[in-house]
Specification:
The chain is of the alpha+beta class. It has a single domain, classed as Outer membrane efflux proteins (OEP) (Up-down Bundle), CATH 1.20.1600. It contains 8 helices and 4 strands, in the order αααββαααββαα. A 4-stranded antiparallel β-sheet has the order 1-2-3-4, with no helix packed on it. The longest helix has 67 residues. The two termini are 67 Å apart.
């Protein structure tokens, strides 16, 4: 009877005594969310010149766009030409006596506002590249927060699995003692062993998932798994003003792309204006040793190619960019509304489970333990109460994970 009396107390304490003790031991060497963001190079204190390839690529795209602005501001190069006439002919033009040398330089004149249109289009592309860089950094920060929350949830499931295995191992031991004493049929011991094997299998799966979650988190800044996260879920405070006239990075990117497309139309129209080339030079007559000045002008005749195809294509791309901007704004507002609803629902569920359901389950397990020790309840009642408490604990982990991920997504949607 002494072994039976210990069973209820064991079930009541297994879930709430071992977990905090392990959590306290882990807290001293755990990775915090702020440290994870700093290692990824997306925290407010991180250097702008982060070595993370996930941020270096978008930053290089901005530098490339800025270099194209410099190129767009350059004017056409002058041209130099040398012509030799009346050389190696017949009669009076034999030899080099009647040779004429002409050395001239020409400068293309850009008409139609080509340089200004070029610069405007290039600067618009810089704006697009900068928004894309901000978008990449915000996406990386979102991934860090969500993967960190997933790692914390995975570690919490490992802790829960350890408690379940510990409880089932003690239950199997007690069941064996009862069977050997002849107080329970052998089927009781077989069931206890099967429950223990199932709990151990679930624990191994939870440990594998926890390691995979750490690898996924560490992959955001290195090739190694991240250190174990803190035991408690991080407090991620979402912005609550998102349902107003807030415009996130997606609408900003779509607007920048629309402006760039409009500037491209102006650039293509300017390219349809022909550019004349003015030249001036000196001509020397070998026979008389005289010299004269030469001036000239040449201009393309736009009979067929007036750049009309490129203009039409740019106009179509501008219309497409305008349509994408409208869709991006609608999708953004929908994403904000859905994510905010998900966050509030997960927050309410987690708070209810933590404040009401879990304490009630603990109390139910305590009462089942008292009833079992006084002979009013069967062992099955105690086991059922323990399993109900564990189910609530699993639901609480799931709810906190959903709340953290939704909060991280809200921060991402509010990024500027």
């Amino acid at each position: 009877m002494k072994s039976l009396a210990l069973l209820g107390a064991l079930l009541a304490c297994a879930g709430c005594a071992a977990w905090p003790a392990r959590a306290a031991a882990q807290a001293a060497q755990s990775l915090t969310l702020e440290e994870a963001l700093d290692r990824a190079g997306v925290s407010p204190s991180a250097s702008e010149l982060s070595e993370n390839p996930r941020t270096m690529g978008p930053r290089a795209e901005v530098e490339a766009a800025q270099a194209l602005v410099t190129q767009a501001g350059l004017r056409p190069n002058p041209e130099a030409s040398l012509e030799v006439e009346n050389i190696a002919g017949t009669g009076p033009y034999s030899g080099l006596r009647a040779t004429e040398y002409t050395l001239s330089a020409g400068v293309p004149l850009e008409l139609g506002g080509k340089r200004g249109a070029r610069l405007g289009a290039a600067r618009a592309e810089v704006d697009v590249a900068r928004v894309r860089e901000q978008l990449a950094i915000a996406d990386l920060a979102l991934a860090v927060r969500q993967r960190y929350v997933a790692a914390v949830a995975a570690q919490a499931r490992v802790e829960l699995g350890l408690d379940v295995v510990e409880r089932n191992r003690e239950l199997a031991r007690i069941a064996n003692e009862l069977v050997e004493a002849g107080r329970e049929p052998p089927l009781r011991s077989l069931r206890a062993q099967a429950a223990l094997a199932e709990a151990e299998a679930e624990l191994k799966a939870a440990q594998a998932n926890a390691l995979a979650a750490r690898f996924a988190l560490g992959a955001l800044w290195s090739q190694e798994p991240a250190a174990a996260p803190a035991a408690a879920f991080p407090h991620i405070e979402p912005p609550y003003e998102l349902l107003g006239d807030y415009r996130g990075l997606e609408p900003r990117l779509a607007a920048a792309e629309r402006i760039a497309a409009e500037m491209a139309v102006g650039r293509e129209r300017a390219l349809g204006v022909p550019d004349p080339t003015i030249s001036a030079g000196v001509r020397r007559f070998e026979e008389s040793n005289d010299q004269s000045f030469v001036v000239g002008v040449s201009i393309p005749l736009p009979f067929r190619n007036r750049n009309q195809g490129n203009i039409a294509a740019a106009q179509a791309q501008s219309r497409a960019a305008s349509a994408r901007e409208a869709v991006a704004l609608a999708d953004y507002r929908q994403a904000v509304a859905e994510t905010r609803a998900e966050y509030l629902a997960a927050e309410a569920k987690a708070d209810t489970l933590e404040a009401e359901s879990f304490p009630h389950a603990e109390e139910a397990l305590r009462l089942a333990d008292l009833g079992y020790r006084s002979g009013k309840f069967a062992m099955l009642e105690v086991l059922s109460a323990a399993e109900a408490r564990d189910d609530i604990r699993r639901s609480l982990i799931d709810a906190r994970e959903a709340q953290g991920k939704a909060a991280a997504l809200l921060i991402r949607l509010a990024a500027q």
